[in-house]
Amino acid sequence: MSMTRESMEFDVVIVGAGPSGLSASIRLAQLGQQHNHPLNICIIDKGAEVGAHILSGAVLEPRALNELIPDWQTKNPPLHTPVTHDQFVFLTQRKSWTLPTPPQMHNQGNYIISLGQFCRFLAEQAESLGVNIFPGFAATEIIYEDNRVCGIVTGDKGLDRKGEPKPQYQPGIELRAKQVIFAEGCRGSLTQTLFVRYQLREGVDPQTYGLGIKELWEIPKEQHRAGHVMHSIGWPLDSKTYGGSFTYHLGENLLAIGFVTGLDYENPYLNPYEEFQRFKTHPSVSPLLEKGKRIAYGARSLVEGGIQSVPKLTFPGGLIIGDGAGFLNVPKIKGIHNAMKSGMIAAESLFPLLRHSTAAAECTDYPKQLKESWLWQEDLYPARNLRPALRWGLWPGLIYSAIDTYIFRGRAPWTLHHKQPDHLTLKKADTCKKLDYPKHDNTITFDLSTSVYLANVSYDENQPYHLKLKDRHGVPINVNLKEYASPETRYCPAGVYEILYNEKQEPRLQINGGNCIHCKACDIKDPTQNIVWTPSEGGSGPQYGMM
Length: 547
Hints:
alpha+beta
């Protein structure tokens, strides 16, 4: 199909309106004003509005915000719930044991927030500085010239599944720039292609991930303790599987509750969604929810590899920031401040190139400045060994973490490594125990379809499939089903994947793409990497509000 694309020129194009991309845009605009050299900056985001696809726990450490917008408290920010109490517990099936809160998890001076609301606040600050923000546009292609990134193409809107235009068809737009900043977040689709083209992951550890599933509840006033933060380890996961919960009391009578399961788990019968539902039945948790009302649901993958897994971050014409690079501090259970700081450092490194008309140069100063910053030296480096140690199991990992934290202060003269990517950790189904999960009571625990409804998923009917299979027939049945009992039907927290049988009892994989909540778990955990997540039509997918 022939088409004519509109082309627009900018100094900088930023892909993703999350905390890193928005912080980069604000800092670039600030520098432009300070040096009387205004920049033409564009941010695009695949969500229908800023924050529509944003999900996190979330507790914000305001260090980067203090640096970026020193007078933020005068601008009516959505930071209304300061943390008042930390609790760290170990759960057995019926008991709860309070443990000393590790120093990394202390939250004095931090705030419980909705990250979606916070990003909308940052977007307002960016727009007030002249930044152009275009939500509802998914970046689907990178423009290269002479092996240099010089822009991106937004996806077409209004094609049917055969690639033919519907009446509302709108062709994508070429957005060209002197520099392109990729702030796509965890497992960004274009970022993955950059890794391959420029061999950015050579010489670093494989990335490892977690899957976070979250619900937002309204609970009775007598159960609500504004500012209370609780994290748990232990039950319902076995001692070999990494993961844990978070329970945050925010706002007026709101409770953010969620569960993270490490995607390096081994048993293909494990179901992260059902582990979360089971967690909510614990005697220390269920009283919070029994008289409450669940109002939102969502899920998102988390980057957990630490500095061992951070790729090369620059290439001709662009760079990578935020969770696309992997700046989450796992033991601290925070990454927003690091994502923001990486965007700020990127902006400060890029500005001299943009100002002095050398924008075609690769921004080699960015990784240097990053490694000299508090993000690397004080936040990520001391935490580097704690996540890989937990691959030894819960108790050996906790013992090592205590030694690393309290004796070596995060400065042990060694670095532990991640040896293989998450998709290679699954064992064959015939060597593993099937897991039986309890029936949902529709008061505290719920079936998956009821949950997905609360994610406010929206897709235009008959739009092209965005979940691609490299092999549509052989691998899903002959490998995933026969060898691994179709783990995609369990690790997906939205019911996208089903095995259906015809009248001859012949199986096939059914993909319910209209359920997809963009968590990226399938792209990460599929044992043969046969599933490839690509962006759906801009503006489609989950529509998160307070998440």
